[in-house]
Structure formats: structure tokens, C-alpha cells
Design a protein that fits this description.
- By secondary structure, the protein is of the alpha+beta class.
- It has one domain (2-120): Ribosome hibernation promotion factor-like (Double Stranded RNA Binding Domain), CATH 3.30.160.
- The protein is built from 3 helices and 4 strands, in the order βαβββαα.
- The protein is elongated, with a radius of gyration of 20 Å.
């Protein structure tokens, strides 16, 4: 898994960068079956004299062979925005992992679910 952290107009310390990489690294247990996985974290400060309100945003992109996940969060504090974006990415990756496991256990047929639903409505003799 390749993790890249890009900061634009934001100063992050080495400790913050290592914490970000460590927290993103926790996703590895769900992505171990995916061979080429790239995770990009963009930390952006959009503050300026003409902009009011939310000034800092975090974008997290998880790119794999089977799926792409893109999450963007905006907050006043960059680390709070990262925490919220990471929780969203974590939830999406876990859901995708759960779907793959269920697909492997049920055989993964396209119409299995449809036949299961239709089977409930069949007339019983």
C-alpha cells in the first residue's frame, strides 16, 4: 500500500505526518487482498482575504484495481477534518470488504438475491 501525504499551504509537523500515515495504515487489514493500492491524502488551506467560513480541507483518495473511494471534508481545524474524512473512508472500505466476503461465501451469482426474493412469493402447494 502506497501512502502519499501532500500539504498545500499547510504546515504539518513530522509527528502529524507520521500519525496520518499510521492511521491510514490501519486500512491495510481490509485491503490486503487488493494488490496495487494507492492512498493519497491532500491537506489544503484555502484561506484568503475574500473567503469566509471554512478554510481548511482534507481530500483522501483510495485507488485500487476494483474500486475508487474519494472523500473530502472541510473544517476550521485540519486534523478534525482529517479525522472525519478518515472515518468516512474507513466505513466505506469496511463495507466494500464485507460485500466481498459475502460474495465469496454465497457464490457471487448475479441473480442469487433476486431468486431469493422471488422464492418468498411463490405459491405453496
Amino acid at each position: 500500500m502506497q501512502i502519499s501525504v501532500v500539504a498545500k499551504d499547510v504546515i504539518i509537523t513530522a509527528r502529524q505526518k507520521s500519525d496520518i500515515e499510521k492511521k491510514i495504515g490501519r486500512l491495510k487489514k481490509y485491503l490486503k487482498h487488493e494488490s496495487p493500492v494507492a492512498v493519497e491524502v491532500h491537506l489544503i488551506d484555502d484561506s484568503g482575504p475574500n473567503k469566509n467560513g471554512v478554510t481548511q480541507s482534507v481530500k483522501i483518495d483510495v485507488t485500487s484495481e476494483h474500486y475508487n473511494i474519494h472523500v473530502e471534508e472541510k473544517r476550521n481545524n485540519i486534523m478534525k477534518a482529517f479525522a472525519l474524512a478518515l472515518s468516512s473512508v474507513d466505513r466505506q472500505v469496511r463495507d466494500q470488504h464485507k460485500k466481498e466476503i459475502q460474495k465469496a461465501h454465497t457464490g457471487g451469482g448475479r441473480f442469487d438475491k433476486v431468486y431469493e426474493i422471488l422464492g418468498r412469493f411463490r405459491k405453496k402447494k
